Amino acid sequence: MTTVLQTAQDLLPTKVRETILLRAYAALKIPMIGYTRPVVEALDAEHCVVRIPLCRRTKNHVRSMYFGALAVGADVTGGMMAMYWTRQRKSGVVGVFKDLHADFLARPDGDVVFTCDEGRVIGELVDRAVASGERVELPIHVSARALAKGEQREVARFTMMLSIKNSTGKRREATQG
Fold first, then answer.
1. Cys staple from 65: which of 83, 87, 102, 108, with CB 3.0 to 4.6 Å?
2. Cα distances (Å, whole numbers) of residue 27 to 8, 20, 154, 156, 165
3. Considering the chain, what percentage of its residues have pLDDT values greater than 90?
4. Is residue 176 situated within a structural domain?
5. Distance between CA 5 and CA 71 in Å, rounded?
6. At how many degrees (to 10) do helices 119-132 and 67-89 cross?
7. Is 174 contained in some domain?
8. Domain presence at residue 8
C-alpha cells in the first residue's frame, strides 16, 4: 500500500521532485547549496544534470559565475548521484568529498549546467560500501557547460574523490536493483 506522500511524489515530474528534495535538504543541512538555487534538470541511474543560474548571488566582480558557485554545482551534481544510489539501495551509507581538482577552461557568462555520467560506477561503489562495512573511495568527474547566447560551451571540469561508508557499521549483502 502506498502512502499519500509517495503518491504525491509519483505524480510530480522527476525534475520538480528532485529539485524540491535537494532544496529541502539544503535548507536543513547545507544552506550554502540553497543560496545558489540549483535546479535538478535530470537524475537517473546513469547521470545527473544540475543547473545553477547566473544571478546576483552567483556572479563575481567580472559578471561571470564565481568559482565558489561552480564548486557548489560540481559538489551537488556528484552528491545527487551518490544520494540517488543510496536511496535506491535503501542503505545507510554516507558520502563526503575528500578532495577537489578543477580545470577552469572559459568564463561562465551564463547559467551553468553540471553533468555527472558515472551513475553505474557510483552505484557499484555504494554496493561495495554496504557489503564491506568499510570506507570506499572513487574519483568521479563532473563537467560544467555555460548556457550563453544560444550556445553551450564547456567552462570547467572537476574531479572529486567521493568517499562513502556504511553509517550503520553493519555489513550486509548488497541488494541488486
1. 108
2. 21, 10, 29, 27, 24
3. 60
4. no
5. 33
6. 60
7. no
8. yes
